[in-house]
Amino acid sequence: MSTKETWRGPQAQAVYENLLREAEALLSPETDWLANLANAAALVYSTLPDLNWAGFYLTKRGELVLGPFQGKPACVRIPWGRGVCGTAAQRRATIVVPDVHQFPGHIACDPASRSEIVVPIIHDANVWGVLDLDSPYEGRFSQLDQQYLEKLVALLNKHVDWQAACSSR
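and the corresponding structure tokens:
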């Protein structure tokens, strides 16, 4: 049985609170953006149930470019405004998609993905990228996921030099 039926309420909230504490402990002593994003992706992927992909796309030269992630190989470049990632970046808002097959222009990097949540990374008024999570189950992501993943991005904003991460060098 999938945990998606039970991934609500106090249990999920406790897991997320612990994830944020672990993320702070991992990120706070480190200054390297690549190390911090790699650890954040690994922490999310290994902590949250029913994911088949978790990672980052970073804004470079007007498009989203694959960053650190956990899961199967992924699409390398996503145009601004395309797919869930590009749309979330363009809208500057989190997008929760219960069924990716119903999202106009969805980019299927992994055909096993059924639902997705994308949180834009906005710091100093710039969109530096997105945090992207996919699940093989429809309806996997909730308002609680959105709330805590947005908190994770806020934590990342304190510990990642986005200008260095998104540099075209």
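(Above: one complete record from the training split.) The mean pLDDT is 93.
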